[in-house]
Amino acid sequence: MIYLVLFWEYFKVGLFTIGGGYAMLPLVTQIITKRGWMTEQQLIQFIGIAESTPGPFAINLATFVGNTVGSATKLGVFGGILGSLTATVAVILPSIVIIIVVTLLYDKFRTNKYVQGLLKGIKPVVVGLILSSVFTVAANVVLPDLDFKNIAADGANTFNWISLILIIAFIPLSQLRIKGKKLHPICMILVSAVMGILLFGVFNLQS
Amino acid sequence: MKHNSRQTNKISLWTLFWTFFKTGLFTFGGGYAMISLLDEELVSKKKWITSQDMLDMLVIAESTPGVIAVNTATGVGFRLRGVAGAIVATAGVVLPSFVIITALSFFIQAFENNTWYKAAFTGVQACVTVLVINAFVKMFRQLERGWFSALLVAGAFIVALFTDFNVIFLIIIGGVLGIAYSFAADAVAKRKNKALPLKDSERLDDSSDEQRSEHDPENDGGDK
């Protein structure tokens, strides 16, 4: 039963990731590739969409993964909706329970030795995991044939140098401050979509 | 939670739902974007909670598992209207995402092979790479400095990138090591305190790197 698997996997995502949307990315990537639900490429594309549509990023991601998995079943559109619902409920369920308990025990929670120790260890691990996501996402965009788990010479077969230039160009753009405010991710995504249409659609580079 | 007494009349579940529905609809990006919006709405305008409550809730939302936006909604809902409030507020914040993304998913599946769509998203992918880099930098800066953190960051990074080792196990191992480290650090600090004739100022110096002792000095006194 695919929906049970979906529920279980997303329940674990909700239960084990501290730090919100991007902290969930390494775990979600591992799940979708292990289960063969979608490609990393699809996930990366959707991150762009999730950032530029309303709602919390992580919920958008869960809904989308659920929909993709559900749509692949015989139930079609209805299956997609059911999949969205399954993944979204699964990812928020641990939160609801944990937050209620922690709110009740807040003072103890904040000063508890075990909790503090736990966080001291989990936070750096999560940061390390996000760093690994940086590499997998970047490799997927620039060197799509490269597999970090099985590094071979033909990993460098395709080299999307224009994407690399875009990444390098976007880094200072993302740090740009206008009247003390950073550029909103949506603006950057829109700019990058227009650049994409121009470079890869109109001028047909890197194909 | 002491501040709850300042609310004279109960907030209806419907109002709670609607407030969080609007928040979900107008938040783009992650939980942090939502928190400034909630602060404006709940603390400044509606005065449902104090800014101290808001801060407490942010600490909880960040240091517990799950989506930060959902954690915040659950926390506020629970404080205002108990378990029913927690569920209603969470449903409210999630619903816009759910509807919009479900509708969009079908659209995406239809357009996935369109040339222009592909071209646009080849550009967007480069941008997403930068967003992930920025998320890493932001979280890295918030990290406590020290060899222990550095070791865990490096270890988790290498294992996650080059092996298929389950990410969940990495997180659990990190938690266990964190507890072990905290207790070891405590034991070392205590031994130092015993070995040296106690001077109050020194004792404070020794334990100043632990957050815990900043919060509850009485606990520290009880230890000896």
Any chance you could write out the topology, listing elements then pairs?
The complex is a heterodimer of chains A (207) and B (224).
Chain A: H1 2-16, H2 21-35, H3 40-51, E1 55-56, H4 57-71, H5 76-104, H6 106-111, H7 113-142, H8 161-175, E2 177-178, E3 181-182, H9 185-202
Antiparallel strand pairs in A: 2-3
Chain B: H1 13-26, E1 28-29, H2 31-45, H3 51-63, H4 68-111, H5 115-142, H6 147-162, H7 167-195, H8 200-207, H9 211-215, H10 217-223
Helix pairs in contact in B: 1-2, 1-4, 2-4, 3-4, 6-7
Structural account:
The complex is a heterodimer of chains A (207) and B (224). Chain A has helices spanning 2-16, 21-35, 40-51, 57-71, 76-104, 106-111, 113-142, 161-175, 185-202, and strands at residues 55-56, 177-178, 181-182. With 207 residues, chain A is an all-alpha fold. In chain A, a hairpin with a 2-residue loop joins β2 (177-178) and β3 (181-182). The mean pLDDT of chain A is 87. Chain B is mostly helical and 224 residues long. In chain B, α1 packs across α4 (68-111) and α6 (147-162) runs antiparallel to α7. Chain B is flat and about 65 Å long. The two termini of chain B are 32 Å apart. At the A-B interface, α1, α2, α3, β1 and α4 of A face α1, β1, α2, α3 and α4 of B.
